[in-house]
Write a structure and sequence with these properties.
Layout: H1 3-33, E1 41-44, E2 52-58, H2 66-77, E3 81-86, H3 92-101, E4 104-107, H4 113-128, E5 134-139, E6 142-144, H5 148-159, E7 164-166, E8 169-170, E9 176-177, E10 181-185, H6 186-190, H7 192-200, H8 207-224, E11 230-231, H9 235-243, H10 247-252, H11 265-269, H12 273-279, E12 282-285, E13 288-291, H13 297-303, H14 312-329, H15 334-337, H16 339-346, E14 350-352, H17 365-369, H18 375-387, H19 396-403
Parallel strand pairs: 2-3, 2-5, 3-4, 7-11
Antiparallel strand pairs: 1-4, 5-10, 6-14, 7-10, 8-9, 12-13
Length: 408
Amino acid sequence: MTMKFRLSEMLEKASVSALFLALKASQSPRIMREKRAPLLSDEVVREPGGGSYAIFIKYYGRDFDAGQLALLQSLRAERVNILVVFNREPTGQELEVARRYAWRVVIRKNVGRDFGAYRSAVLNLISSGAEVERLLFLNDSVFYLPGRQLGEMVGRLVRSDRPVTGAFENHARTHHLGSFAFAVSGDVYRDARFQAFWRNYRPYDLRQHAIRRGEIALSQLYRKMNISADVVFSLDRLGGQLDTRSFADIVSLLQTLPLSTRPSPVSLLKPPAELLDMMVDQEFDGDNRVYQARVSPFSKLMTGDAHPAGPAVPALAKRLLIDRLLADAAQGSQIHLAFGLYRRLLSVPLVKRDLLHQGVYAEHDIPNLLDDVAEDFRHEMIRDMVSRQRPIHIGRWRTFLRRHGFNG
């Protein structure tokens, strides 16, 4: 590493820290006013029934889409008391739909992103004296896909006997649950440490703050409480599905990987030279090795044809491929890095809205990954993703902001 490079890196870190502190300072007066989580309105629509509650945060200024309606219906089917939180003034149609399904409807200013809204909702529940035995946290940073899988996911979040259950987990920086869909038990909800977390949280409108002081800090709190969180769409479930597939099926799944990790089978496997030797028919001419490419080695692996070295080599090649796929997915946000695999193998009913905005997939990938979704809704989803802009042809300043989480 050259001195010039180290100096540039240090300057960038200093710039990031300075910008972060400046933005926090500019927002501090508003944050102090938000200390008591003021609401624009708070309407109790009906009496609660049972001890299961859900907070659903709606921000995007559109009417409820097919997926959000399916989510509300799934929650009602599980006898969940729904607290709908609008992060802005809703339309008349939105309010009408919310009243149809909700136990309570809250309207607030958009302060603090999703964790700011969660904070308002949790403090609202605490002050109302609600007897919570299970509490779900859900927001509209994802699309919800109507169907059996959505109902099953909601059912697992509601009926799980684990203290904390998330839909997805994330290993970026440190292990934490995705904030778009998770649930806690009544014991966790009533714990003084959990309630203090929400009272003390400062809802800055900064993505990195929400991740570090929200998602990550909350998961760290679980560990301090000696809680091991469960996950609905875990990597071991994904690995179990991969194990049941043939080598050919797994190779075909490579086209569903994100743009940055969509390699050829050869570059993905990267086996040692000795294994490559075994994967091909070979003849020796003195000290020189001459490979006879009568049949492609990968053709043999994918078609299941007899291999000269026996069945162990195809099995090992499959294992190497699975290991690499799961290792790549475990590097960060699994709903991003392994979205295609989860869609194909587990029919996951969640789609992050920022798949194009973050450059994870290209626009033409989305119809293929959502080919089982109703055409009208699929088109609506794609247009929403495209309107958030893709990371192409952007200037240095916006690139800097994106790289360090100051936008999106």
